[in-house]
Amino acid sequence: MTTETAVRPRDAAEPGTPPPEKRGWTGLPALGFLAPFLILYLAFIIGPTIYGLVMSFFDTSLVKPGLSTFAGFGNYAEALQSGDFWSSLWHTLWFTILTTPPLIILAFVFALLADRAKHGRWFFRLAFFAPYILPSAVVALIWIFIYTPGLGLIEAGLLKIGITSPNWLGDPNWAMPSLAMTTIWWTLGFNFVLYLAGLQEIPRDLYEASSMDGATPWQQIRRITIPMLGRTTTLVAVLQVIASLKVFDQMYIMTSGGPNFATRSILQYVYDEGFTNFRVGYAAAVSMLFFLVVLAVSAVWFAIVRRQEREV
Amino acid sequence: MTDLAQRADFRIKLFNRICFGVLIAFALVWIVPLAWALDTALKPNAETTRTTWAIADPTVDAFGRMLRDTDILTWFGSSLFIATLSAAGTVLVASLAAFALSRMRFRYRNVVFWVVLAGIMIPGQVLIVPWFRQFDALGLLNTWWAVSLPQIPTAIAVFIFKQFFDGLPKELEEVARTDGASYLRIYGRIIMPLARPAVAAVAIFTFVQSWNDLLWPLLVLSNPDIMTIPVGLATVQGAFGIRYADTMASAILGAIPLVAVFLLFQRHIVEGIAGSGLKG
After folding, report:
1. Which of A180, A188, A208, B23 has the fewest CB atoms within 10 Å distance of its CB?
2. Could you list the residue range(s) of the whole structural domain that residue B26 is in?
3. Start and end of every ABC transmembrane type-1 domain (chain B) (predicted)?
């Protein structure tokens, strides 16, 4: 124990300290522990990333072996000039804009309310979290039925109060909001649980002290709960934006990107170009452009977290 | 003064009541689609076009037909095998790597850690094109390996394990080490048994993610004999036509295993997130 405390600060202070091999901490066993992960990681994450980057500069075809002819930035130029690329990117962004605020705000409100509830917490956890674990195909099947004109649940409900509903998935203007609604129902549970976990971290005596000072519940929420959950909110927001940008399943099963390509996502564009038109080089270039968008979002998140940590 | 306190007390109670009412209302909204799907699955196909809730006369015919006429049981097996392999593989390789990063010292430890961390930012979905060619070249398309291998090296799992291991006191293994215990023994006998919440969180999330994944399995599994549940359901979706009871029965059958896992482990899921450092 004494050696431990003696060695640690020295390691931190001087990067040039001789490695601690002589005390039996050799690199070899560490490599043994790391090897299974690193081999798979290089083979299936790092390697393919580099391969995809290389491929994006070639006119690679799915049906022919090899990389085929060098295209330079041709694939990128083509993507950036393609109306289909921009519209699918816009659909993905539009979906992200429609889903992110409700998925943060509703998850926060539900978690706050469920945290206050004295009874039946298991029921609320079940109600809000259960949809999250359903496979997308199951969610899609249920909601296609709910949106079906003539017999869907929503139409029946709205008719009772005298409102005629639009053709949810069939109308190009309504298709995306309908998919967003389904997604909010489906994935809210994950954010809800993150907020529940965050709420448990807030010290109870903060509330007790403030209620002694006569603070109303509403003031407590505004002055204590919301500020204390700042970091959780940052995390929820970035995870949500990244998850929403990666949307594919709902569109693929519920609308196949239609009507009239109104809901084709960027990943479905990659899928269509690569695996229907066999242009995998071009699809790889589109993937890389999409990756840049995700990286930009991650970078913004990283910057915000750094700032929050400095403030604390 | 007591009057004032009573009024404040009353207002807080009223506030809590309203909150509870709002929460119940939303919880019901969230339950209705599931209840409706179940209700529909319990009707004969011919009755599903009536928008009544009556299940006075429930029938499980639709479930029977799905089990008999589709390959859903095969898909179950396929999903179960792939998700179990992915979850077990991820827990094993990620915890071993995290053990090295957290409890061992070696040169370039920080470099390795940053390389792993960088992987969190690479979305698997952008890798589908290279993966496809890779598995095509290996001759592994239409195999379980093609689906589960790429899911095993999950950077976020290493991160979760490392966070958890870092929180365990160093003194734990000091004694074992002076007794001459090997690293493998310290990992297997001391650290891992203590890391149950992290194991549960990583295992559950990997399992759920693998079970629900659609895009990649859809690309590599075209043989109905080894399709996973999401791929199978997505493929036959159009084939049922207006047989809504059958469709809903298949949806419910596809959801049952995960709902069971959730009901068994729901406390661990919340605890796992709370203890994993994922909450921010």
Report:
1. A208
2. 2-41
3. 76-265
Fold type of domain A74-311: MetI-like fold (1.10.3720)
Q: What is the full DSSP assignment across B181-244?
A: --HHHIIIIIIHHHTHHHHHHHHHHHHHHHHH--HHHHHH--SGGG--HHHHHHHHGGGGTT-H
Helix axes A83-116, A280-311, angle to 10 degrees: 40
Q: Count structural domains, chain B.
A: 2
**Does B17 lie in the same domain as B75?**
no
How far apart, in whole angstroms, are the C-alpha atoms of residue A268 and residue A288?
14
- Domain ranges, ordered by start, for chain A: 74-311
Residues B27, B104: one domain?
A: no
Give the integer Cα–Cα distance in Å for B233 and B71.
10
State whether B31 and B78 are in the same domain: no
Query: Residue B151 pLDDT more than 70?
Result: yes
Measuring CA to CA, which residue among B34, B15, B6, B100 is closest to residue B255? Answer: B34
Q: DSSP string spanning A94-152?
A: HHHHHHHHHHHHHHHHHHHHHHH-SS-HHHHHHHHHGGGGS-HHHHHHHHHHHH-TTT-
B161 within 8 A of B98, measured Cβ to Cβ: yes
- Residue B278: pLDDT band with limits 50, 70, 90: low
CA-based nearest residue to A188, from A118, A109, A104? A104
- Per-residue pLDDT band for B54 (boundaries 50, 70, 90) equals low
Residue B3 CA to residue B224 CA, distance in Å, equals 73
Chain B, 76 to 135: residues with Cβ < 8 Å from chain A are 92-94, 96-97, 99-101, 104-107, 109, 112, 115-116, 119, 121-123, 125-134
> Are residues B157 and B190 both part of a single domain?
yes
**Partner residue facing B248 (CB), from A123, A145, A231:** A145
Q: Do A137 and B15 make contact, defined as CB atoms within 8 angstroms?
A: no
Both tokens assigned to A281: 């080089």
Whole-angstrom distance, CA of residue A240 vs CA of residue A249:
16
B211 and B107 in a common domain: yes
Are B214 and A27 in contact (CB < 8 Å)? no
B252 and B137, same structural domain?
Answer: yes
Asked if A221 and A115 count as a contact pair (C-beta separation under 8 A), the reply is no
Q: How far is CA B227 from CA B196, B235, B260, in A?
A: 32, 10, 21
Could you give the CA distance from residue B187 to residue A142 in angstroms, rounded to a whole number? 45
B214 contacts chain A (CB < 8 A): yes
Residues A195-228: pLDDT tens digits? 988 888 888 888 888 888 888 888 888 888 999 8
Q: Are A269 and A198 in contact (CB under 8 A)?
A: no
B206 in any annotated domain = yes
Handedness of CA B150, B152, B153, B155 (dihedral sign): positive
Note the pLDDT of residue B90.
96
CA angle, residues A241, A242, A245, in degrees to nearest 5: 85
